[in-house]
Write a structure and sequence with these properties.
With 442 residues, this protein is mostly helical. It has 19 helices and no strands.
Length: 442
């Protein structure tokens, strides 16, 4: 079991709250109670994550629009996204071995600082080769933040509040994305009013967001949690362990790989979707993206409550399948209002499942396997984007947005089916009747 950072807390209050039948107010009190259990280190991590995620959100909104304005086509823009994923993929292997050797504070600060450098080059480079190298470097630099989060939470929390911590971490990214989408798009609108080109407005908006993201160095620098535990690590990484435990590793990673392939085909291009098909401005698209994050945040907040009632696997399967009709609406509608509605609801449903699936993967294995399984999951997601983002950009350049949307919908169906097939019966063996209590599945 992971070291409980809040072991001094007594479980009596938690059981009392759980018996309350106060409806909506009960769920609010239940959430606030679980948040109050978060350790100081977890809170600092979430604060630092907010600033880093703000920069990421601005780049997610504006970078494609900036590159398109500079004259680059969707195929090349997709190749840059693949380069970013490739950078993350290349650094993930060494980072797996660095996590137990350096403190989380060091990993997070270095990751954030080098990400800022990569983003700065990405915002100022003019030629394809230099842009590709900048994308590769920025992807490699940002890997530390994402890879360290799940093992950090497993070490800095107890089973009682852990599901809420995973979801609130994802919610922190969503909140930062709301701010980044609104302010990023609005900043472009303000800069457009000055005597500079639209390309320069986009570029300066990207550069300003980098400075804001660097504020995250302060809370990260206050984190005192030690490095990931090393115990049993040598055995975990041996081929004999992969032969023995490879089946569960594959089951946890492959459905997520399919989701990643589908997402890589279309999700990074949804800002171009609204610009190309409906002629929306960066400011308008920023508003859409901000509202999307609000819908996603609602889904994230509801996720642990639904998972507690239905179980993690049924929640994941339902949300993935329920998103399919809205993807098809995006593929074929010619009405902006329909596209916006489908954009919001699809995002809420699909992203409700993401923190739940990560938490499930952590609970499904022993603590000494957490760094390995977390890295395999990240590898599956990143590898999927290495192939699919470039392909998605090329498909859009040649055939518009409908084909990648339809293919992505099919891949989501396959992922949901595999989650159900692999784990619908196994979930009861992994968990005791009390929520989030780990059982050894080895």
């Amino acid at each position: 079991m992971p070291e409980e950072a809040v072991s001094s807390k007594k479980p009596v209050k938690s059981r009392t709250v759980a018996k309350d039948k106060g409806g909506v107010w009960f769920h609010v009190k239940d959430y606030l109670h679980h948040i109050s259990l978060f350790s100081k280190e977890s809170r600092l991590f979430l604060i630092g994550t907010f600033f880093a995620a703000f920069t990421f959100a601005v780049f997610q909104l504006l970078l494609n629009l900036y590159l398109k304005e500079m004259g680059f086509k969707e195929g090349f823009i997709g190749s840059l996204l693949s380069a970013t994923a490739l950078g993350t993929l290349v650094i993930s292997g060494p980072l797996i071995f660095l996590l137990p050797r350096f403190s989380y504070r060091t990993i997070l600060i270095v990751s954030l600082a080098f990400s800022a450098i990569g983003y700065a080059f990405l915002s100022t480079a003019q030629h394809e080769a230099s842009l590709w190298l900048a994308a590769f470097f920025s992807g490699a630099s940002a890997a530390g933040l994402r890879l360290s989060a799940p093992p950090f939470f497993m070490q800095s929390s107890s089973p009682k509040e852990r599901s809420y911590l995973f979801s609130l971490n994802f919610g922190t990214w969503i909140l930062a994305a709301i701010m980044g989408s609104l302010l990023g798009g609005y900043l472009v609108k303000i800069l457009d009013s000055f005597d500079i080109s639209h390309v320069q407005s986009l570029r300066w908006s990207l550069l300003i967001s980098i400075g804001f993201g660097l504020i995250g160095v302060i809370p990260f620098g206050l984190i005192k949690t030690k490095a990931a535990k090393k115990e049993g690590s040598s055995e975990i990484w041996k081929w004999q362990n992969f032969k023995k435990r490879g089946k569960i590793y594959f089951k946890l990673a492959f459905p997520l790989f399919l989701v990643g392939v589908g997402a890589g085909l279309i999700i990074p291009f949804l800002n171009l979707y609204f610009k190309t098909l409906f002629h929306q401005s960066a400011h308008q698209i920023g508003i859409y993206f901000a509202w999307l994050q609000i819908f996603m945040l609602a889904g994230i907040i509801i996720g642990p409550v639904v998972a507690k009632k239905w179980g993690m696997i049924r929640t994941i399967v339902f949300t993935e399948l329920a998103s399919i009709p809205f993807m098809l609406i995006l593929a074929f509608t010619t009405k902006l209002s329909f596209a916006i509605g489908a954009f919001f609801i699809r995002g809420a449903l699909m992203n409700m499942a993401q923190p739940i699936s990560t938490h499930f993967a952590m609970e499904a294995v022993e603590e000494k396997e957490h760094p390995l399984v977390n890295s395999l999951i990240a590898l599956a997601w990143t590898l999927s984007w290495v192939f699919s983002a470039g392909l998605g950009g090329k498909l859009i350049e040649l055939y518009s947005f409908a084909p990648p949307l339809v293919v992505a919908a099919g891949l989501y169906v396959a992922s949901a089916a595999l989650y159900y097939y692999y784990f619908a019966k196994e979930e009861k063996k992994i968990f005791k009747p009390e929520p989030a209590t780990l059982q050894d599945t080895g």
